[in-house]
Structures are given as C-alpha cells and as structure tokens.
C-alpha cells in the first residue's frame, strides 16, 4: 500500500482533478482535495460534461447545465478550489475520442500538475452505479492523454505548433471510484469531512433525500478508514495510485 503522506510535502505543487459530471469529484475526492488546499497546494477542477441529463426536476437541459455549473463552482469553493474548467461535453455521451483527449492533453500541458486525478476506467461490479459510462470514459480519456500523448511532442503537434504547449511528464495519476481490488492508497479525511459534505450539499439539484446521501457517504468513508486500518472512527477516501513517471521509470516501457 502506498503511503499518501508524502504527497502533501513540497514536491506536490499543483493538482488537476477530472470528473465526468458536476458532483463526481465531491463524492470521490473532495475530502482529499480539501486536505491538499489546506496544505497550500493549488487544485484545479475539470468537469467533462455539463450534467445536463442529471436531476429530478422537469427542467430544460440547458437550464440544468447552467445550474450544475453554478453548483460545482460553489462546491469547489467549499474545499478551497477556485478554478473550474468545463469541457462542455453532453451528459451521457462522453467518449474517449481524440477530440476529448486533445482537450485533456491541452489542459494538462497548461497546468503542469504533479498529480492528476480522474475517475477509474475499469467497471466496478460490486456497485455498478459507480461505473456510469461517462465515468469510464473520463478515466479512459485521461489515462490515454497522460500516456503517451501529454509527454509525446509528436502527439497532437498543433498544440505545440499553434499554442506553444510543450510535452510534459505527469508524475502521478490518482484514480477514484476504483474497483476495491485496485485501491492501494487511502487518505485520512476525518478533519475535512465537514467540507466534503458542504461541497456535496451544494449540488442541491441532485439530492432528493439529503439525509440518505449523507448517511451513505459517511458509511463509505468509515468503511474506507477501516480497510486502511486507521484509528477507530477515522474516515478515509480510497484511490488507485499509479506512478506514471517515477524516479525509476524508463521512457518507452
């Protein structure tokens, strides 16, 4: 199991966190993100779809998209995130196409994060709701972008030629919503759980039963803390941590 404490040190300067829909990051990683920002680390969000197919009210999809943008921006502020990028893809239609991957490559080269966060590209059969097709597409698009495209100067050469965005090697990929057998890193979020819940409550269009949502999230974080063998009653978020460019990484292998 990877010790996540090291990621809160001087080497981690920026984090770029991707979600398929508004609220995905808040369910999967907002406690950890609050810990990052509390440590002085800059975090930026990228939401890949507008969330226009989400919610429980009979509302025009364009109005829903505007509301969900606003909800996500408010939720981000709750955990110390000031910059939210929206790729504008249609909810329910996200694919790891070259157009989407190019947008991801562009943003990663612009931000140059030490850690990229994304949804896991593998389906979770224990709870299939974690594996919405958009979630899988988010993870696949980001993973394909990170290797090899972001670090390959010959991938999407127009980004270098027209925008001056040079190749960049991402050190770490943190995937959330992973199948349990893939999870190899846990972050104690007990001190930041309140911020995580405040962020989730900001997505008011998505929670017809707020109390049920809160119980579910607490149960999940409590179970993660137990699996991580943290002290009693500690709460945690779980990740599949992938070293993309570690000290011993050999390019091309």
UniProtKB/TrEMBL annotation:
Keyword presence, Zinc: yes
Domain of life: Bacteria
GO molecular-function terms, A-Z: hydrolase activity, acting on carbon-nitrogen (but not peptide) bonds, in linear amides
Coiled coil stretches, renumbered: none
InterPro entries referenced in this protein's UniProt entry, alphabetically: GlcNAc_PI_deacetylase-related (IPR003737), LmbE-like_dom_sf (IPR024078)
Pfam families reported in the protein's UniProt record: PIG-L (PF02585)
Keywords: Zinc
Protein name: PIG-L deacetylase family protein
Source organism phylogeny: Bacteria, Bacillati, Actinomycetota, Actinomycetes, Micrococcales
């Amino acid at each position: 199991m990877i010790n996540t404490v090291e990621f809160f040190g001087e080497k981690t300067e920026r984090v770029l966190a991707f979600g398929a829909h508004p609220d995905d990051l808040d369910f999967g990683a907002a406690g950890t993100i609050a810990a990052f920002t509390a440590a002085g680390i800059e975090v930026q969000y990228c939401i890949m779809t507008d969330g226009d197919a989400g919610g429980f009210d009979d509302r025009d999809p364009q109005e829903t998209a505007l509301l969900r943008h606003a909800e996500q921006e408010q939720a981000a502020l709750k955990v110390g995130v000031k910059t939210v990028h929206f790729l504008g893809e249609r909810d329910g239609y996200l694919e790891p196409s070259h157009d989407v991957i190019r947008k991801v490559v562009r943003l990663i080269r612009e931000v140059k994060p030490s850690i990229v966060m994304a949804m896991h590209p593998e389906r979770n059969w224990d709870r299939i709701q974690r594996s919405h097709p958009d979630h899988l597409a988010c993870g696949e698009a980001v993973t394909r972008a990170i290797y090899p495209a972001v670090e390959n100067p010959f991938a999407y050469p127009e980004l270098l030629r027209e925008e001056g965005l040079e190749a960049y090697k991402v050190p770490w990929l943190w995937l959330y919503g992973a199948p349990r057998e893939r999870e190899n890193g846990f972050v104690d979020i007990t001190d930041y759980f309140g911020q995580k819940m405040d962020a989730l409550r900001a997505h008011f269009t998505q929670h017809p039963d707020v109390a049920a949502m809160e119980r579910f999230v607490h149960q999940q974080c409590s179970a993660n803390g137990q699996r991580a063998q943290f002290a009693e009653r500690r709460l945690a978020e779980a990740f599949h941590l992938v070293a993309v460019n570690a000290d011993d990484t050999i390019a091309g292998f």
